[in-house]
Amino acid sequence: MLPRSSKVPRDSVHHPVFARFYARWSVTADEKGGVAAYRRELLAGLSGRVIEIGAGNGLNFAYYPAAVSEVVALEPERFLRKLAVEAAVHSEVPVDVVPGAAEAIPVKSEAFDAAVVSLVLCTVRDAPRALGELRRVLRPGGELRFFEHVLAPGRGLAGCQRALDRTVWPLLFGGCHTARDSVAAIEAAGFELGSWRRFRVPESGPRLPTSPCVLGTARRPLSDADD
Questions:
Q1: 3-state secondary structure of 222
Q2: Phi, psi at residue 51, to the nearest 5°?
Q3: Contact 128, 189 (CB under 8 A)
Q4: Paired strand residues for 223
Q5: Is residue 221 within 8 Å of 186, Cβ to Cβ?
Q6: Distance separating alpha carbons of residues 155 and 150, to the nearest angstrom
Q7: How far is CA 198 from CA 82, 172, 182, in A?
Q8: Whole-prediction pTM
Q9: In what order do the strands lie in the sheet with 138-149?
Q10: Which intervals hold domain Methyltransferase type (predicted)?
Q11: Any long-range contacts for 15-21 (C-beta under 8 Å, 24+ apart)?
């Protein structure tokens, strides 16, 4: 059993209305918006022990390759965690869904070969701290896979994102901040960036605050040793 952190309560995140909305919307986005293809690309080639932060309703679980020996999936929101547990039952790789927050991951240091974040860095309360925790639990040389909403390039949509982040958007959408620059945050947390790319979700249609996305990889440096 994973050790529990005394610093973070079992239900450190509680968004019951948004959680129910997200559970429905995410399935539609996967099936009709092309998000499932990005999940498959995000997880392709992973192996060994993997930690996933903010697993939501467990939609990633179906795409973990057979070379993954175990997935530890943290989800702090109770309703989504229940759905993730149900999804884990049908996964072809072992998945252990546990409560926990990204800012205080309840596992020992250097315990995982890879870490996965998908549509979660926009939502965590303290992104630098969460990324520091991810670096801590990865072994040196371990890989971080990310698929995230990000700040749009240019001024138009980016200005809208910043304005919404300061007002109603986080309140309505479970703490989501669409104006975060997750790639810069990953690099600032001490990861070595690999390949990554920008795209829109959906690729056509209206430009929404959540449309600008990135998908890519980073690594904890091999020279990095836990203090």
A1: coil
A2: -115, 130
A3: yes
A4: none
A5: no
A6: 14
A7: 32, 25, 12
A8: 0.90
A9: 95-98, 68-74, 48-53, 112-118, 138-149, 212-219, 192-200
A10: 52-145
A11: 15/77, 15/174, 15/175, 16/78, 16/79, 18/172, 18/173, 18/174, 19/77, 19/78, 19/79, 19/80, 19/174, 20/79
Give bridge partners of residue 51 from the DSSP assignment: 72, 115
**Residues composing the chain:** 227
Please report the domains of the chain, with CATH numbers, ordered by start residue: 16-219 (3.40.50.150)
Separate counts of helices (H) and strands (E) for the chain? 7, 7
- Alpha-carbon distance of 141 to 146, in angstroms, equals 16
Q: Which of 104, 116, 8 is nearest to 72 (CA)?
A: 116
- State the DSSP code for 198: E
Beta bridge partners of 197: 215
Backbone φ and ψ of 171, nearest 5°: -70, -40
SS3 assignment, position 188: helix
pLDDT at 16: 77
| pLDDT tens sequence across 5-39 | 334 445 556 667 888 988 998 999 998 889 999 99
Contact (Cβ atoms closer than 8 angstroms) between residue 129 and residue 103 = yes
In degrees and rounded to multiples of 5, residue 71 shows phi and psi of -120, 125
